[in-house]
User: What shape does this take?
Amino acid sequence: MLINHLPSWQHRKPLPRLWQLDTAFGNILLKLLHSAVLVHLTITSNLLDLLRQLLNLDTVLSIG
Assistant: This one.
């Protein structure tokens, strides 16, 4: 008895093109989000340092 045999390329379903496009777009968005978070943290850190320096300057002036 012959078993219904599919060619090997039919066993593996190729991923839909839309899904591949969506994944690529998602990866780009993740990289952009990561960059934006890093930039935001850097700016926040710099602003906090500046604020700390201003406060230190203020205390130095009030003491002197």
Observations:
- The mean pLDDT is 76.
- Helices lie at 8-11, 17-63.
